[in-house]
Amino acid sequence: MVSSTGIWLRSEAAPNEQRTPLVPGDAAKLLAEGIPVTVEESAHRAFPIDDYAAAGCRVVPADTWPDAPPTEVVLGLKEPSSASVPLTHRHVFFGHAYKGQEGGPALLRRFALGGGTLLDLEYLTDEAGRRVVAFGFWAGYVGAALAVLHHRGRLTAPLRSLTRPELDAELRAEQGAARALVIGALGRSGRGACEALAVAGVPTTRWDVEETRDLDRAALLDHDLLVNTVFAVEPGTPFLTTADLERDDRTLTVVSDVTCDVTSACNRLPVYDRVTDWAEPVRRLHPGPPRLDLIAVDNLPSLLPRESSTAFSAGLLPHLSALPHGGAIWSRCAEHFHHARPAAEK
Ligand SMILES: NC(=O)c1ccc[n+]([C@@H]2O[C@H](COP(=O)([O-])OP(=O)(O)OC[C@H]3O[C@@H](n4cnc5c(N)ncnc54)[C@H](O)[C@@H]3O)[C@@H](O)[C@H]2O)c1
Question: Does residue 66 contact residue 86 with C-beta atoms inside 8 Å?
């Protein structure tokens, strides 16, 4: 039976955003279940529109979602374009609007004006509150890869998006004597970081909550590379301090902060004040000797758009299948929105 609720995959407004939350193969699975899928054309998406058409999706011009039938659920990753247009539909994307972020109140006002609902992907959680879809693995993979390539003098700026075979070829092109430490190693990003370091042939120490409870600072500084992938929910002992930067007995020369909690009270790396970007991914924190270089790119999965989209889409697919029938996971998501919205309307 064909569902009256369709998925409308819109184009992304953010420049250089090549990722998508729904890849063509998974769109075909939704269609097979009777869920109509409409896909907007996009100049940037890592998957060609012809692949969606071949899967049976209806193709429409970019940025036409404001005219979608009211029963459609509009799907994307970041805030939709046409900033002044009130949001009338149910929208699924990462809103970054509930924790006082810049632009959050304005986004919620668009929903208030249009009467629509934000189903924020960050708040798609199981009964235990764990997120069910995230880009973490590939963030860690790329974050560690950039650290290795920089340490080997092989990182070129500006960064550009790649495929995994291209990135792995770079990682395998040279072996070195460096040793790495991944903190948060048991998490999604941490596992991705460890995998990239294995591909690069870099011996890796893995720390998680147990190993940082009583921080062995000398052991930490005795690694060449540090990849921070912790998901910090409370302030705690910093992994690095400005005093550590001054130490001349330090082996550590490259830090890749996947967490990028730089403006948060929970930040465990209070040695820098702003993230780096694709144009200039590396910032020198200490001239040395020994030098200390920082990589803190906050959109790492975009550097591997096909792989990160494929993994994300696979995780989201069962929930998109369930969307026409509602269900607890989407109700919890909507509750977060209804809880946040009144604050924005004041
Ligand atoms: N830079 C980017 O592009 C990017 C992309 C995605 C996610 N992230 C960020 O990466 C971080 C990790 O995300 P994730 O999905 O891997 O989270 P996760 O919850 O899967 O993993 C986090 C890990 O950190 C560990 N941890 C928490 N506190 C710790 C401590 N004090 N010491 C050691 N380990 C500790 C946890 O036990 C867990 O294993 C988040 O802050 C997320 O926002 C960044």
Answer: no
- 293 in Cβ contact with 110 (< 8 Å): no
Is 223 annotated in the active site?
Answer: no
Please name the residue whose Cα sits nearest to atom 7 of ligand 1: 136
Ligand 1 centroid distance, CA of 137 (Å)? 10
Cβ contact 90:98 at 8 Å: no
CA of 208 to the centre of ligand 1 (A): 10
pTM: 0.90
C-alpha closest to that of 221 among 171, 153, 271: 271
Q: Confirm whether 7-123+305-345 and 136-303 share one CATH topology.
A: yes
258 is in an annotated binding site: yes
Place of tokens 């000797």: 289
Q: Look at strands 73-75 and 37-40 and give their pairing.
A: unpaired
Could you give the ipTM of this predicted complex?
A: 0.99
Q: Which CATH class is domain 136-303?
A: alpha beta
Q: In what order do the strands lie in the sheet with 292-295?
A: 204-207, 180-183, 225-228, 254-257, 292-295, 282-286
pLDDT tens across 260-307, in order? 988 778 889 999 999 999 999 999 999 989 999 999 998 999 999 999
Residues with C-beta less than 6 Å from any ligand 1 atom: 134-136, 139, 183-184, 186-190, 207-209, 212, 229-232, 236, 258-260, 298-301
Q: Does the pLDDT of residue 346 top 60, yes or no?
A: no
Please, what CATH class does the domain formed by 7-123+305-345 belong to? alpha beta
Please write the tens of the pLDDT for every residue from 59-97: 999 999 999 999 999 999 999 987 779 999 999 999 988
Q: Is the pLDDT of residue 130 over 70?
A: yes
